[in-house]
Amino acid sequence: MPAKDLAGRKSTKRKQIDAEEIQSAELQSNGVLEMLSDEEEDGDASSDDGHVDEFPEIVNESSSEDSDYDEDDEDEDEEDTEDTEDENANESGADSDDSLHVFPKAKTIISRITKQPKTVYPEIEPNYDSDSSTEDTPNRVGDVPMHWYDDLPHIGYDINGKQVLRPARGDELDKFLATVDDSSAWTSAFDKNTQSDKPLTAEELDIIRRLYTNENPDAGYDPYEPTTEWFTGKGKEEIMPLSGALQPKRRWVPSKWEKQKVMKIVRAIRQGRILPSKPKTTSTSKFDAYAIWSEPSSSVVPPLPAPKPALPTNAESYNPPEEYLPTEEERKAWEALDPEDRERNYLPQKYSTLRLVPAYDRFIKERFFRQLDLYLAPRVQRVKLNIDPNSLIPKLPSPSSLKPFPTYKSLQFSHSNGRARCISVSPDGEWVISGDEGGVVSLWEIMVGREVKRWQFEGKIGALAWCPRSDVSYFAVGLEDKIHLVTPPNVDPAVLSLTQTVLAPTTLPTAPATPSTVKWTTPASATWSIDTPLLTMDLPASSSVPSHFCWHRKGDYLASVSTGGAQSNVWIHQISRRHSQSPFKKIKGAVQSVLFHPLKPHFFVATQQYVRIYNLSEQQLVKTLIPGIKWISSMDVHPSGDHLIVGGYDRKLCWFDLELSEKPYKVLRYHSRAIRSLQFHPAYPLFASSSDDGSIQIFHSRVYNDLMTDPLIVPLKILRGHQITDGLGVLQVKWCSKHPWLVSSGADGSVAVWCS
Amino acid sequence: MSTSTSSVASQPVVFSTRTQYPLPSQKFMIPTSWKRYQLSQLINKALSLEKPVPFDFLVKGELLHTTLNQWCSDNGVGEEETLEIEYIESIMPPQKMSDFPHEDWVSSVSCQIQGHFLTASYDGQIRAFDYSKNLVSTTMAHTAPITSLCVVSSDESTHTVASSSQDLTAQITQIHLDASTSSKVLASLHLHTSTVSSISSNNAGTNLLTSSWDGLIGFWDTNIPAADEVPEPVLNERDRKKRRRIENSTSTRRKVPLLVLKSHIGRVSKALFAREDGKAASCGFDSTVRLWNTEYGVCEHTISAAEKPFLDLALTPDGHSALAVSTDRTMTLFDLRASPTHLAAAAASFAHAATPSCVVVCETNSHQAVTGAYDGVVRVWDVRSTKGAVATFRAWEGKQKVLSVDWRRGIVGVGGEGGLEVWKVGEEVA
């Protein structure tokens, strides 16, 4: 930078400073002029000298004032008033220390010589007034304990040796009144020397205040005054060497070690060990700073504390109270239990002293189990679902609102020989036929239970079914290899004659084109009696006892199923044509049960695991239902034809909605043993299931026409009363068609009627 | 009375009765330790009856078995409350008089003929016994089980008896109780196409009512026509032979009903005449009790109950109320005097432990009835005591079904599975 330019600028600046000093102070911070700061400082020192030179002038002024005391006093008073004004301002304006001047006020002025700010203190006037020691204190006893004068009327002596009398001091009331009346009373302090209250001066009060607020008592002291930078900063560098010695060679020879280090890095860069232009990731710092409370607490639960062992109780004491000690029976009961089943793993024992307590024999074991607990205890906090278990139970109507249904056993009919396998209730609901394994078929009234007629056949009775026609009256009896059609006694003559013409027409229908293996025989009309069947069908020799009959609703077709036979055990017999046919040439699996659809020409066939629905008119399979039962025992179709229940030997009961899926709509497992029989009530919304556990269960089953509403199934009643014989319970249940009454036959040979 | 000593706890009591022994209405302070016996003595003394009459006491429809104190504490009645106690003539404990074993079940029993019992059995025979347990007469009336029996008219030793059977007919039979002459079937009643469930005659013995499972009620007279009113059914060869055999043995006239009462849906279990002429009542499995006018053959009133298939019906002698037993194990009391709109409401219901099969009302006291049930227990009821039976006894040790009861002159004949048993219940009225 050229020095002349600088000098020219400086001269122009000086002129400006003369005009406005503040602007120069601002400009001083400007970096342009700082090259000459050293010189200015020197000049500043010289200006100080100049100031010293000016000192005698002030002295002269003071000497001139010296002659007149009054003026000085006035000045002091003025100063005092100023001070009090300042103090008032300070009190009102809170906190500026600078505005408070209890001590001689220091002024910052711009030196005329150096043009730098400097602090100027007011001169101390070295006259008598200026020294406190020259004050006229009346009491001249000196620094002696003032209690020496406690008993005396005076408090000391003045300069003339005269007693200074004790000033009058008011009592406490006067003091209080003084605090009330005189506003300066609370700022006065007791002066021992004069034994009177002296008001504190403003300076003293300010000192007290400063001490009180832990500040420096000196008001002029500024703890935060700016540091003066002498050697740092721009333009103040040491550019001149401190010594004249030559610089060593290494100062200008390139460093060998630096070169080696740089080359090492260069090699590393070349080999790719260091990526020079690697993007700086923000997460390089080890810890990310974050605000702890800025976000809500996370859902992650804090780790669980380890499970705590149970605290010892009174019973575990070495000297428990008597009531904790086990009695002999309790001890035996405890010992008889398995260790896992015990409520607690110790027996309380009593020792008279702690000294007698033996070593703890279960210590290792207990530690081991404790470790196992700690190791195996799941430390996962399970989210506990707060679900009222009662709310999970579906809302079902109460059974009492679904009356009527069978509730009690009205009467019981007994078969003396063997199990009552099969029963059938007449279509008018008045008569019951029941067959047992001894070949006896009994006809009895449903309401009285008196046997009216008995037929004796040879062999087991496998199935019974009353023809559903109301204008004729006969029933089918299934025996081994034979199906008999029998008429009951005491029927109306018109019904009887029609039955006879149906079963044994005078002109036999023409034989079908394909002869069947089933032979239909009717005894000669002369030999007809009430004890013998009117019509007999001889099944093929290899087939066994028919276990299931099903009439078509019109009463012309009878389907029979015989289980255990060699082949083709399903037959459909047509009474009017006296013809039997086997609808299935070959069926996978053994057929358990068959059913006619109540409305459509459909035919249900239940094998061991599947239920197949065939369309008889179109001769094709419609649907296959998969109940998921290992072995189907029975099934029944709802009178509406849209619902099917299937029961199995594996205790399951499946409800199918035939409109819906091939899987069950509902699977009920209420029985504890195999389900034997099922039936829907033809008129009431009821169905019953019987089981080998000896019980019959009654369900309410309301089916809605509305396709959107699911069927309502409500368990209503468990009927018990049949004895379990040889592991078999209730073998068949049948409903009375007109009343909510149930007829059940059991393996104990009893047939019971359950009434509502 | 009210100034009784305060040391004994006492209860204010007001007595009321519907018997012929009324007390003036007055409040009594009764010591609470009193039982039935003391109360009965009190009433006897208060009325100063010459012959002591034992009374039973009903507190709020419940028979008092314990002390008053006990009853009050059980039912939470305070000492200050005034109890209303109704007293009724008590029924002596029933005593078994004799039993008459039968070979088959007895479906119906009648005690109407003095000194004799008539039983109808499932083997189709009508038997007559005298009081000394002798079998006086046996009549093979039906080939099928007889379901019901009634006495139509009585002479010295010749009685006309009507019986209904499962062979779809009812018969009028003349029975001679002196063993010399045999009984004779006078006429057979042909209407029904199903089992005839009951038959009953009016008091004069001029008309009969039959009810059947086919839902029809037949109204007949008892005149024996000179010739068959119904032709023989067209029979095939086999039946004709059989029928001819029967015809040869008897000279039975075939009768037709005067009226057919047709309103029941389903089985009619009982039809009987009311006390006033031209009225009848019936009950059926369609849960209705119907009141008929037999002159016009119309149903006058129908009392419908919900799901109560009625098995038997009895009308009280005063004609005010009907008692019907149903398969829901209750006996229901219907007040027939009520307006037709209120007929459906049952006045009271009496619960049984098993199916009650038969009911009969005392012929002198309208408040007493006897029911027999399938558990073999015969219960004696007072319709004012709804909470429980007044007395019970077990026929045949309570193992066999009771199918029929009849109560005349203080004697209850119980017919059922075990034959006939005769018990003495209540006062014997001459």
From TrEMBL, chain A:
GO CC terms: nucleoplasm; PeBoW complex; preribosome, large subunit precursor
Superkingdom as given in the UniProt entry: Eukaryota
Swiss-Prot/TrEMBL keywords: Nucleus, Repeat, Ribosome biogenesis, rRNA processing, WD repeat
Residues covered by region (Disordered): 1-140
Subcellular locations according to the entry: Nucleus, Nucleolus; Nucleus, Nucleoplasm
GO biological process: maturation of 5.8S rRNA from tricistronic rRNA transcript (SSU-rRNA, 5.8S rRNA, LSU-rRNA); maturation of LSU-rRNA from tricistronic rRNA transcript (SSU-rRNA, 5.8S rRNA, LSU-rRNA)
Acidic residues composition bias: residue spans: 36-47, 63-97
Residue ranges of every copy of the BOP1 N-terminal domain listed in the record: 149-406
PROSITE patterns named among the record's database cross-references: WD_REPEATS_2
SUPFAM superfamilies linked to this entry: WD40 repeat-like (SSF50978)
Family membership: Belongs to the WD repeat BOP1/ERB1 family.
Function: Component of the NOP7 complex, which is required for maturation of the 25S and 5.8S ribosomal RNAs and formation of the 60S ribosome.
SUBUNIT field: Component of the NOP7 complex, composed of ERB1, NOP7 and YTM1. Within the NOP7 complex ERB1 appears to interact directly with NOP7 and YTM1. The NOP7 complex also associates with the 66S pre-ribosome.
This protein's name: Ribosome biogenesis protein ERB1
UniProtKB/TrEMBL annotation, chain B:
Per-repeat ranges for WD: 189-221, 261-302, 370-391
PROSITE patterns assigned: WD_REPEATS_1 (PS00678), WD_REPEATS_2 (PS50082), WD_REPEATS_REGION (PS50294)
Keyword annotations of the record: Nucleus, Repeat, Ribosome biogenesis, rRNA processing, WD repeat
Gene3D superfamilies: YVTN repeat-like/Quinoprotein amine dehydrogenase (2.130.10.10)
Cellular component annotations (GO), alphabetically ordered: nucleolus; nucleoplasm; preribosome, large subunit precursor
Key word Transmembrane present: no
Signal peptide positions on this chain: none
Annotated compartments: Nucleus, Nucleolus; Nucleus, Nucleoplasm
Domain NLE: 13-70
Main location, first listed in the record: nucleus
GO terms for MF: ribonucleoprotein complex binding
Pfam families, sorted: NLE (PF08154), WD40 (PF00400)
Gene Ontology biological process terms, A to Z: maturation of 5.8S rRNA from tricistronic rRNA transcript (SSU-rRNA, 5.8S rRNA, LSU-rRNA); maturation of LSU-rRNA from tricistronic rRNA transcript (SSU-rRNA, 5.8S rRNA, LSU-rRNA)
Family: Belongs to the WD repeat WDR12/YTM1 family.
Protein role: Component of the NOP7 complex, which is required for maturation of the 25S and 5.8S ribosomal RNAs and formation of the 60S ribosome.
Subunit structure: Component of the NOP7 complex, composed of ERB1, NOP7 and YTM1. Within the NOP7 complex ERB1 appears to interact directly with NOP7 and YTM1. The NOP7 complex also associates with the 66S pre-ribosome.
PANTHER family in the record: RIBOSOME BIOGENESIS PROTEIN WDR12 (PTHR19855:SF11), WD40 REPEAT PROTEIN 12, 37 (PTHR19855)
This protein's name: Ribosome biogenesis protein YTM1
Lineage: Eukaryota, Fungi, Dikarya, Basidiomycota, Agaricomycotina
